[in-house]
Amino acid sequence: MTRIERPFDITRFEDEWLEADGFGGFASGTVGTLRTRRYHALLLTATRAPGGRMVLVNGVEAWVEANGQRFPLSMQRYVPDVIYPDLTTRLIEFDTSPWPTWRFELDAQRVLIAEVFVSKATRETVLRWRLEDIRTASEEVNALTLKVRPLLSGRDYHALHHENPAFNFNAQTSDDQSCVSWQPYGDVPVIHAATNGAYTHAPDWYRNFCYVREQERGLDFSEDLATPGVFGFDLAEGEAVMILTASVESTANASTPSQQQPASNAQLAQLTATHATERVTELASIEQQRRAALGTRLQRSADAYVVARNEGRTILAGFPWFTDWGRDTFIAMRGLLIASGRLDEAEAILLEWSGTLSEGMLPNRFPDYGDTPEYNSADASLWFIVAVHDYLATHHASAATTQRLQQAVEAILAGYTKGTRFGIQASADDGLLNAGVPGVQLTWMDAKVGDWVVTPRIGKPVEVQALWINALRIAAIWNPQWQASADRALQAFHERFIDPSTQALFDNIDVDHVKGTVDRAIRPNQIFAVGGLPFPLLEGAATRAVLDHVEAHLLTPLGLRTLAPSDPAYCGHYGGPAARTRRRLPSRHGLAMAARSIRRSVVAGSRHCNRSPQRSQNALSRPAGRASRSRGARPSIGNRRRRCTPRTGRHPVSGLVARRVAAH
After folding, report:
1. 169-210 pLDDT, tens per residue?
2. What is residue 511's DSSP assignment?
3. What is the top-level taxon of the source organism (predicted)?
4. Both 257 and 363 in a single domain?
5. Cα–Cα distance between 403 and 399 in angstroms, integer?
6. In a 3-state reduction of DSSP, which class is residue 197?
7. Number of C-beta neighbours around residue 475 at 10 A
8. Which residues in 378-394 are b (16+ Cβ under 10 Å) and which e?
9. Co-location of 53 and 150 in the same domain
10. How many CB atoms lie within 10 A of CB 414?
């Protein structure tokens, strides 16, 4: 539990929370209720799970009225940097267990508790408000009225929304005015709000919200939001509840068997305040039991990344803006699912991804809109093979599943041996794996700004060779024909990758496909040759030399740097607008890999450095009215934002552990 200390500390108020829905959508925000990112919202829905994300309900303006006084329960930041209303004297406590919960001090006698959680059974966001002890102030409770104004947009989650005449404020309500539906634009899902209060239609605009995290990144950062009306709740009658959901047809399996669909417009009129109250009680009970069964806080946080894709499962690369990426999925599932005993989900992921195999490659990523995947990764397919090895070692798979996965593994190796996209092919002279063409990033160091590939690594990158040799040895377990290729590549690795001046490993050889050239940059990639994979490539003194070298130059209390500080390209801090930070990208300082103990050569996983996606200049200056991708033109929205493709970097809150994120 977080106790809000006084004097007020605005940086503590901007710590972030996250609630995932298991389909790629989520609710998120800050401790102080300020929205600091365009991605902060109460109802952010994946219309094509886990992609096609849309922000529907950005937040609420909430307050309590009592005896002519107004007690705010939400705080907003407006351009240029005006925070109103002030919660610094009201918010006294915040906790994330079992879900985000706030305690507000209304006055010396009364405390109000507010809660938010997302149901993984139904993809609904639940908001709940109640007095801490209604029995201690029965007379005064009668005078307490909670008011809640939903703030809506109906936009792509990368975009920002602005006041426009096309916004549809029309509301369809239930007979008792407790449940309401809106559809801001014709091509966005219908938003449903089921409450135990009463709705009053009062359309208005809230203008010039300021998102400081976007401003820091040099992006557009102001937004206007529509509010169609206000809900009123009598706190004397007990807790106030609101259920937010969207009419999205699910094409993927729910994370639990008890999936329920939101009410249709035709059913809405029959809903009542009693239904909403009972439903919140049911959803809270189901969700609390589900979370308790997950075990530790870390396990609950990790569960946020496991989501549905089609009829299978997948793992998100990070919040708030990444969907699923092949490399990240196969690395993460070894710990999130296989080592944790969630083997049915691990199998579902491997089978789902195996169906996307093309020319011996698995996708690097799927676009937010559209079904054509991108295959620009040399190592994603190899990480798949490692994950298959770990999964099959549990003996959980049926004979049919085992055969299907083994066939996928051999299809990858055959494609890589023959040659596939982007110059990926086993070298005829030494059996190591060539990879790379100009203008395309293929390894985990995949930053790209416009046409500039920051760390091309064309040639034979060291960790790709470790993965390649491991993949060959894994396939040889059931098909000995791959053993000779593995032995040949391993011998070449020993002969060509050891730097005689340090006894550590080169980061890349045959750079730009020029035979005999080497890259001596000290990076953490060489650690995979000695740990973290099923079959280490080095032994004894050779392993010790790599570990000592990495520890001496890259180890920090939190993980490994991506470049040695002694390198002229090293920069210890990366951040800010693209125009100012482009020159800093080659240093890529960050927590490259989470190493539990490199002294024991145990590499727990791989994390990307804290880099932020940058937009192209065209996107930054796109005039209002320009449509985004294949979505219909919506001249009212303006400033629609696309993430650069391929991706330009890893977000600071991606991965399992982030200083400012608490996920469940």
Report:
1. 999 998 888 899 999 999 999 999 999 999 999 999 999 999
2. G
3. Bacteria
4. no
5. 6
6. coil
7. 24
8. bbbbbbbbbbbbbbbee
9. yes
10. 13
